[in-house]
Design a protein that fits this description.
The chain is mostly helical. It has six helices and no strands. It is globular and about 60 Å long.
């Protein structure tokens, strides 16, 4: 029952988010869009764990994995915004977890089916996940260096300089 309730709520959220992509100030360039990959990836893994026979993969799990790959394609098409100055501390780590979850789901799928094509897909996903981790780590390190030199700033989305009049004294 929890899986069904979560699935219905997830569908509502996806419809709302993709329906508002065209609006200014929407989430089109937000790394948080990649978080949409996490729940179905976790669903694929949980469905595989609930499957009693290890020699096959559930059809619902395959459908969810297909949805994960469709989302990945759409989100990569919208373009990750890794080179833009982060709006808040740790913003780009939203790229890492969902790709790791999708990779885990793909590895479980490859393990269950044990075919060359699924194993190659799993290897490709592992490479993409590791590259995303290294890119995010490098980007965060570069921004930390900029902050230490006084050329950058970690902003807090809840704190507005104008509202509290905390400009730096010269």
């Amino acid at each position: 029952m929890c899986f069904g309730a979560g699935f219905v709520l997830y569908i509502g959220i996806v419809i709302f988010i993709f329906g508002n992509l065209h609006e200014p100030g929407g989430m089109r360039e937000s790394p948080a869009m990649f978080l949409l990959i996490g729940p179905p990836s976790a669903g694929v893994v949980s469905l595989d764990l609930m499957n009693d026979s290890a020699s096959d993969f559930s059809q619902l799990g395959e459908m969810l994995l297909g949805w994960v790959f469709l989302l990945l394609f759409l989100l990569f098409r919208l373009g990750p915004t890794l080179w833009r100055t982060p709006l808040v501390f740790g913003e780009y780590w939203a790229y890492v977890f969902p790709l790791a979850a999708a990779t885990t789901a793909t590895v479980r799928y490859a393990t269950a089916l044990n075919t060359t094509s699924t194993e190659m897909l799993a290897v490709i996903m592992i490479v993409v996940a590791v590259i995303s981790l290294l890119l995010v780590l490098g980007r965060m390190t570069f921004h930390m260096y900029q902050c230490l030199k006084g050329q950058g700033q970690w902003r807090d989305s809840l704190f507005h300089v104008e509202k509290y009049n905390t400009s730096q004294a010269s």
